Amino acid sequence: MLTVDAALDRLTHSLAAAKRLGADSADAIYVGDGSTGIGVRMGVLEDIGRSEGEEVGLRVFVGQRSASVSSSDLSVEALQEAVERAVAMAREAPEDAYAGLAPAELLMRDTPRDLDIDDGGEISAETLKDMALAAEDAARAVAGVTNSEGGSASSGRAVMALATSTGFARGYHGTSYGVSASVIAGEGTGMQRDYAYHSSRYATDLETPESIGLRAGTRAVRRLNPIKLDTQSLPVVFDPRVGGGMLSALIGAITGGAIARKTSFLLDALGTQVFAPGIRIIDQPHRLRGLRSKPFDGEGLPTAERAIIDDGILTGWLMESASARQLGLAPTGHAARGVSGPPGAGTSNLHMAAGTTSRADMIGSIKYGLYVTEMIGMGVNGLTGDYSRGASGFLIENGELTVPVAEVTIAGNLKDMFRAIVPADDLEFRYATNVPTLRIDGMTLAGA
Question: How much is the pTM?
Fold first, then answer.
């Protein structure tokens, strides 16, 4: 895996070669990563793997025609061949009036800030094995757990670098760590599965394997002997580990590509009240040690904190340069890309701000409802906003979580659901997308 400086050297040489061959402009991206992962099951080592990979993606423009190629061979000869192939392909590609690099005047010119996403370390395979075993052992020790899908632990490092023919050349690197456990409780047809995991940028920020395993085992046992419910309308409360899906549905509907194609249920919602007053949804690319923190986007534009929803109002679209040109607007620093193809748009560290009601009071005020801990399927229609997903969790009776519930479907329309969301005050930053406990009244539940 290359250093940032070495990667930028390869990229800038490739861009110079593209210009010599007749490209009007070009950009190139390097992505390198290496990780070690350990898997155990029933107290026995089941899998150990070390993966290392690096790849360069090159995008060239000849007039309004463009082409992209990628190569995992980073030798000078291989990259020269990739450049020649890309330029030849671009000459034959159809014209695209909106194609092109990000505007040069918007590119990041400062030194990228340190986001504290690399602890400089690496965990040995032996230590990872001990962590995976500790997590699984703690889960299996919970009374009622009868089987295991395994425990795992991982340690990795990644390097990203981007250069453009308009003068941008920057990169960054980061570390990542994770521990998980997944176990089964019960016997025969009454078995139930659940899991727990934690990820972090710093090894010292990881929760202990024992606490992760205990949580997985406890969750699995609590799901035993679930009931089914009749079809009805009722309040639904979403646990934070599943509530982030609401934000994912929002982001998918407000990217520049979806708006330009007119395939979004929020097509006419810009500047309007999409959520209740007081709701804020914020993208924070500069959060220290954030799982998706980054100083610049996939086109070299600086990133910045942004309230996507402010006081319930949708403040703007998330756009890379191509969709911004199509919409007659400026790109927003949300370009996301891999080594192949053009950028799309996406967020970094996304969260909904905490509300003022405690989780206990939120649940305590519900006479009869559903607390959702797991979602199944991807039943979201991005064009209409119709929402229908399988769910399981716990029945809420007289303000208390009681018996487990399984095999139900919850449905509604995202426009109505967004306006009805009430956040609790228990926001924690555990994932790339974080929400507090969320309550939505009047959802349709389809049961037995």
Answer: 0.94
